[in-house]
Amino acid sequence: MPPACGGRVEVPPPLGPTVLCHAGGNPPPPYCPWGGNGAATGTAEGLAAMQLWLGLALWLGALGPLLAPGSAGAEGPRKLQIGVKRRVENCGLRSRKGDVLTMHYTGRLEDGSEFDSSLGRAQPFVFSLGTGQVIKGWDQGLLGMCEGEKRKLVIPSELGYGDRGAPPKIPGGATLVFEVELLKIERRPEL
């Protein structure tokens, strides 16, 4: 590894003013590309080799998080994303846990293929919010909505159907994209 190599090397731009050292007087190990015996080295070959090592290390360090298992780059978003597509002026009632909601929705996979829609049935979907009747992404993503509001929810698999999916239309590990419209809120009296 470069820091264990012999000598003191100052790296010129573009990599910046980095200085690598070790205890002087010891011979460099055989893998040290720029040589040295405790004295400063600065040969063109040595500097080029060190830049190559450092450049490779920086490049791999930047790619690592994207290639690691379980990373957002490899599997899509890891958090629920909520986008408001149509706001409602003068919202007097916002959805909360326990409310019965009447919704229209269209569900798609990340590639845009539709797997379900209430619009095609011309029948809105009715459920109780926050009680586990729907996927967690809906229970969280529909809180605080107003009647007439439209949202786009991008739901990671952990808040959707998980690793099992919902065959045959939803594969395991799928990120779900829903466009939802809240038609009606029925507030249940608190117990």
From TrEMBL:
EC code: 5.2.1.8
Taxonomic lineage from the root: Eukaryota, Metazoa, Chordata, Craniata, Vertebrata
The protein's name: peptidylprolyl isomerase
Reaction(s) the record says it catalyses: [protein]-peptidylproline (omega=180) = [protein]-peptidylproline (omega=0)
Record flagged with keyword Endoplasmic reticulum: yes
Major subcellular location class: endoplasmic reticulum
Function: PPIases accelerate the folding of proteins. It catalyzes the cis-trans isomerization of proline imidic peptide bonds in oligopeptides.
Similarity section: Belongs to the FKBP-type PPIase family. FKBP2 subfamily.
PROSITE patterns: FKBP_PPIASE (PS50059)
Cellular location(s): Endoplasmic reticulum
A GO-annotated cellular component: endoplasmic reticulum
Origin superkingdom: Eukaryota
Organism: Alligator sinensis (Chinese alligator)
GO molecular function: peptidyl-prolyl cis-trans isomerase activity
Enzyme class (EC, first level): isomerase
Entry keywords, A to Z: Endoplasmic reticulum, Isomerase, Rotamase, Signal
Domain (PPIase FKBP-type): residue spans on this chain: 98-186
RNA-binding among keywords: no
